[in-house]
Design a protein that fits this description.
Layout: E1 4-8, H1 9-25, E2 29-33, H2 41-49, E3 54-57, H3 60-65, E4 72-75, H4 84-90, E5 93-96, H5 99-111, E6 116-122, H6 134-144, E7 150-157, H7 169-186, E8 192-194, H8 201-205, E9 215-218, H9 220-224, E10 242-255, E11 278-284, E12 296-298, E13 304-308, E14 313-316, E15 329-334, H10 336-344, E16 349-353
Parallel strand pairs: 1-16, 2-3, 2-9, 3-4, 4-5, 5-6, 6-7, 7-8
Antiparallel strand pairs: 1-10, 10-11, 10-15, 11-14, 12-15, 13-14
Helix pairs in contact: 1-2, 4-5
The structure holds pyridoxal-5'-phosphate.
Length: 354
């Protein structure tokens, strides 16, 4: 049934094996991130079998689905205080930056006689999560180290998410420096220095990642096959592991500009039209509720995306040489946002082939 996402598990397996291999050679272990595929069990399994050292997700609901997989699981998004019970049950490690939450985790972990690992996040300028001053971090860490059921595994940074800051040698060295300061001051050993997400890969690929960084958390690069600092496709990786297919429900010749006085569209935007005369147009059964339109690339040659409403995607197929008809299937390559949205949409089928 359409619309559907066709998932090529072999390509995802290849991508995982390839990138974890390159990273491992540089002493870097990978937490494979499943959030863009909503914690899909088969995809997670493929990541585990092909070199991921940990599985990570930002939603505890997704980690619950993966509970049976025999691998250490990380919760990426800072836990909500009300969910700490699930955090302790379904993740082995979580990223944290608030002592009140860590303290609640400690209580919970003690109740069920478990130890919970944490990575303390530091904010090196991207302005999403993390301690912003070393003073704050030291102040909290002193108390955290007294919590019997918390294990401080290491520190981490997240970049290129909110502030679009590109990871460079400077931030990586700063992270390594902070780790050394913590180790000296508190006389502890930090096992994990986590240098970011898929945007840190150019440093690896260029051979510039400093020694000391020993972990990355990768989602986008494994699934989409590209780094996210400059958005380049990574050589030897597939960037078409997931393809969207949607079906034509109307195919007619129509003018390229609307007729009548125009206001705003259903999303409150004022659309702009170029008058190219009468064109052959197709409507396919998918819309903004299911996918990010700007993040789609048609794979059928000569097909151009014109726009969309909630459930209708409108295409200009005048220049397509294929013999299209009502019921024909149009295929699209997807970027990160489109992948995220289609995987989340209950109206889009997911078909895995191996
Ligand atoms: C989503 C996320 C990642 C993975 O990012 P990608 O760009 O998909 O590699 C890593 N770390 C954190 C904290 C995240 O939220």
């Amino acid at each position: 049934m359409y619309p559907r996402v066709m998932i090529d598990l072999n390509k995802i397996s290849h991508n995982t094996k390839y990138i974890t291999g390159i990273c491992r050679e540089m002493g870097i272990e990978i937490a494979a991130v499943t959030k863009v595929v909503c914690g899909n069990v088969e995809i997670a399994q493929a990541m585990v079998e092909n070199g991921a050292r940990y599985i990570a997700d930002s939603r505890i609901e997704n980690l619950k689905k993966l509970d049976h997989l025999n691998i250490e699981k990380w919760l990426l998004r800072l836990p909500m205080i009300e969910q700490v019970q699930d955090v302790v049950r379904f993740s082995d490690l979580s990223l944290n930056s608030e002592i009140s939450t860590i303290s609640a985790i400690n209580e919970c972990a003690r109740e069920i006689k478990k130890k919970h690992k944490i990575i303390l996040m530091v904010d090196l300028g991207d302005l999403r999560e993390g301690y912003f001053t070393l003073g704050d971090l030291f102040y909290d860490l002193e108390k955290i180290l007294e919590m019997d059921n918390i294990i401080v595994s290491g520190i981490g940074v997240n970049l290129t998410c909110y502030g679009a800051v590109i990871p460079e040698l400077e931030q990586m060295n700063e992270l390594i420096d902070i780790a050394a300061k913590i180790e000296n001051r508190f006389e502890i050993k930090l096992d994990i220095i986590s240098g970011g997400n898929s945007s840190s890969l150019p440093l690896i690929l260029d051979g510039k990642m400093p020694k000391g960084i020993n972990n990355l958390r990768l989602g986008d690069s494994i699934i989409i096959g590209r780094e996210t600092a400059y958005c380049k496709v990574i050589p030897n990786m597939f960037n078409d592991a997931m393809i969207l297919e949607a079906q034509i429900i109307e195919l007619k010749d129509k003018p390229s500009a609307p007729i009548g006085n125009t206001g705003v569209d259903v999303f409150g935007q004022k659309p702009v039209f170029i008058n190219k005369g009468i064109r052959k147009k197709a409507i396919v059964a998918i819309g903004k509720q299911d996918v990010e339109i700007d993040d789609l690339t048609p794979l059928n040659l000569g097909v151009e995306i014109l726009g969309a409403s909630s459930d209708h995607l409108i295409l200009d197929v005048t220049d397509c040489c294929e013999d299209l008809y009502t019921g024909s299937v149009i295929r699209f390559k997807m970027g990160y946002t489109a992948t995220l949205r289609t995987m989340t949409s209950q109206y889009v089928n997911k078909v895995i082939h191996k």
